[in-house]
Amino acid sequence: MVTVNPTKPLANSEQWRNQALPTASTDFTRPLKHLTHLDEWRRMGEANIFPPGSRVELINGEILDMAPISSYHAGHLKRINSVFSKLMPENLIISVQDPLQLGDLSEPEPDFMLLKPHEDFYTSRHPIADDVLLLIEVADLSLRFDQNEKLRLYAQHGVPEYWLLNLHDNCLEVYRKPNGEAYAEKTTLDAGDNVTLSQLPTISIDVSTIL
């Protein structure tokens, strides 16, 4: 993945219009890339630039076409939502595939987040990293991307706990203690294990309930 240097000027609107777009591809193991920045990204959304149903995310100044969500992926996400909905304190906010603003160059849509309370439920702004208690990505085709680019992005912005539900290897990867472009602590858990949330130590999850 080409990382945009935030100290350098980004492409302006004319450069964006003039650049050639890549041809469509059915290989979703590596997302297609375009170049923009957060303000222009949001203007594109307001102008309905992308076709209905498009799955795109802004990551480090690049617009990435993400893989379609399979029923296997969607089913696991529903399971996660169900488990956490029963365990969470009422004041916490559950967010499913909603935007997370990370600086001026990134606005991913994580599969699942637990957010700190907010009086207007984040209707006045998108959540930022400081609002996140737990972030989960469900990974099948996107596994390598989630283990590398997404992990670096979340670590850089200080997301305190990142879970990667690895459907390929049938395990849960737990990343904690963000440190630069990585997490200092990684634990791989299987169906027989339990995990306690670092930001909510009174809550423990049976890994088998979400695998």
Task: Walk me through the structure.
The chain starts with 12 loop residues before the first helix and ends in a 5-residue tail after the last strand. It folds into two domains: 53 residues, no CATH class; 139 residues, Alpha-Beta Complex (tt1808, chain A). β8 and β9 form a beta hairpin. The longest helix is centred in the middle third of the chain and has 17 residues. By secondary structure, it is of the alpha+beta class.
Pick out its properties:
tt1808, chain A, single chain, 11 strands, globular, 211 residues, 27% strand
In short:
The protein has 4 helices and 11 strands; from the N terminus they run αβαββαβββαβββββ.
Distance between the termini: 29 Å
> By CATH's scheme, which homologous superfamily of the largest domain applies?
tt1808, chain A
Looking at the overall shape, the CATH architecture of the largest domain is Alpha-Beta Complex
Order of neighbouring strands in the sheet with most strands: 4-5-6-7-8-9
Q: Could you please say which CATH topology of the largest domain applies here?
A: tt1808, chain A
- Output the helix-strand order: HEHEEHEEEHEEEEE
Secondary-structure map:
Elements: H1 13-18, E1 33-35, H2 38-46, E2 56-59, E3 62-65, H3 71-87, E4 93-96, E5 112-115, E6 132-139, H4 143-156, E7 161-166, E8 171-179, E9 182-189, E10 194-196, E11 204-206
Parallel strand pairs: 6-7
Antiparallel strand pairs: 1-3, 2-3, 4-5, 5-6, 7-8, 8-9, 10-11
